[in-house]
Amino acid sequence: MNYLKLSKEISYALRHSPSEYGLELDDNGSVNLEELLIALKKKEEFKFLEAEDLVKMIETSDKKRHEIVNNKIRALYGHSISTKIQKDAIEPPQYLYHGTARRFIQSIKENGLLPQDRQYVHLSIDIETAIQVGKRRDKKPVILTVKAKLAWENGVGFYKGNDKVWLSDAIKSEYIEFPES
C-alpha cells in the first residue's frame, strides 16, 4: 500500500471535496470510517483497502494530517470546503511562525495574514516547519513571527491543528514581526 498516495487521496476527500466521494462531514470535519472506506474502495487502486490501512497511514505519517476517534476519521487542518469546520479555541504559545513567499510581504503588512482559500491561517510551532511550508512557494521564504499570546489576549482565536501546526481565523499585522529587509 502506498500510504503517501492514500494520505493525499483522503486529504483531498476530507479537506476539499467530500461531496465528490458521497461523504458528508459533521461539524468538526469527521466522517464515519466505514463510509470513507466504501467511497475509496470504488477506486481500483484502493479496492482492497481496510481500516487497518488507515490506522497505519496515520501512524507512519510525518505530517499528522488525520486522526481517528470513535470510529470516525477527520483531517486536522487545511480545509477549503464552504462549511466551516468548528474548532475549540485554545491558548497558543508565546510565538508562532509563518513561512511565506517574498512577493506576499507587502500585502501581509497591509492586510495581515488571511486564510485565502483555506478556512484558517496556518501557523507553525517552530521556524524549521515554517521554512518547509514557505519553500512550497518560494526558494527563500520569509519567516514571520506571530505574537500569538498577545493576539490571544486581545481576542484572536487560535486552534491546535496538530503538534506542529496551529490555526487562526486571521492575524492583524500589528501582531506580526517582519524581518528587516
UniProtKB/TrEMBL annotation:
EC number of the protein: 2.7.1.-
Keyword Transferase: yes
GO MF term (any one): tRNA 2'-phosphotransferase activity
Family: Belongs to the KptA/TPT1 family.
Native organism: Orenia metallireducens
GO annotation (BP), single: tRNA splicing, via endonucleolytic cleavage and ligation
Class in the EC hierarchy, top level: transferase
Zinc-finger keyword on record: no
SUPFAM superfamilies: ADP-ribosylation (SSF56399)
Name of the protein in question: Probable RNA 2'-phosphotransferase
Keywords of the record: NAD, Transferase
HAMAP family, alphabetized: KptA
Lineage: superkingdom: Bacteria
Job description of the protein: Removes the 2'-phosphate from RNA via an intermediate in which the phosphate is ADP-ribosylated by NAD followed by a presumed transesterification to release the RNA and generate ADP-ribose 1''-2''-cyclic phosphate (APPR>P). May function as an ADP-ribosylase.
Annotated Pfam families: PTS_2-RNA (PF01885)
